[in-house]
Amino acid sequence: MAGKFITFEGIDGSGKSTQLRLLAGDLRMRGYDVLTTLQPGGTPLGRRLREAFLETEETVHPMAELLLFAADRAQHVNFLIKPALQEGKIVISDRYADATAAYQGAGRGFDEKLVNQVIKVATDGLKPDLTLFFDIPIEKAIMRASGRLDEETKQNRMDREDADFYARVRDAYLRIADREPRRFKVIDASGPINEVHQKVAEIVGEFFSSKK
Ligand code: TYD
After folding, report:
1. What is the spatial distance between Cα 141 and Cα 135, in angstroms, rounded to a whole number?
2. In testing the pocket of ligand 1, which one of 76, 115, 155, 156 has its CB within 8 Å of the most ligand atoms?
């Protein structure tokens, strides 16, 4: 596939969505054809799924949650991500399969093998070329996420998890970094936006020069 697939990951409140916008802006200015998207919610079906299971007060069974994230991802991969990559675009997704490994695997406690199987069928094996993980201390993440609870529209069920849950999620992300250091880069995201953006630009710059 001709394009490049970059994903952004981080625990809630890590500032990754702001960083994604900044990077996409930079790349577009340099003439790249960039598609940005987010999971869950990058397709019309994904937006409906998001409302149905993330922005709801209803108790959602963890298995239903796992499969709904997977359904959203299958739709996304087949109708948005793969076609864009085939057209040579740079696709940047706010979250992807690593989020399922971290949140549903480590967070909810599903067996790693099962989670990996679900990811594999949902993505048809499509892996990111580069993943940036925005790492911040759990306390900071919880503070930022709880600030969001007031903003009616951004509130979702996952924002209400406790510190243990986020600690498990963060550890799972860091284990992926140990396993796949070439693809999965950890960025200290606790500093000011510009500083973090500099780090992003450096890593992405290196990534593109290594692909030439
Ligand atoms: P979102 O509002 O997009 O939050 P954020 O800005 O923090 O990314 O909500 C996405 C939530 O869904 C987030 O708490 C992580 C969770 N999630 C999973 O649990 N599994 C997944 O596979 C994905 C993609 C997201």
Report:
1. 9
2. 156
Q: Is the CB of 17 under 6 A from ligand 1?
A: yes
Topology of the domain covering 4-210: Rossmann fold (3.40.50)
- Ligand 1 centroid–CA 40 distance in Å is 7
6, 96 in Cβ contact below 8 A?
no
Question: How would DSSP label each residue in 74-97?
Answer: HHHIIIIIHHHHHTTPEEEEES-H
What pLDDT, in 10s, does the model give residues 76-120?
999 999 999 999 999 999 999 999 999 999 999 999 999 999 999
pTM of this prediction exceeds 0.85: yes
Reference 3, options 85, 126, 93; nearest CA is 85
Indicate if ligand 1 lies below 6 Å from the C-beta of 93: no
- What is the bridge-based pairing of β-strands 90-94 and 130-135? unpaired
The closest residue, in CA terms, to atom 11 on ligand 1 is: 158
The alpha carbon of 204 and the centre of ligand 1 are apart by a number of angstroms equal to 23
Task: Please report, for the chain, the start and end positions of each structural domain, with discontinuous segments joined by +.
Answer: 4-210
Q: Which residue's alpha carbon is at the smallest distance from atom 10 of ligand 1?
A: 40
Burial class of residue 18 in the structure, from the number of CB atoms within 10 Å of its CB (0-12 exposed, 13-18 middle, 19+ buried): middle
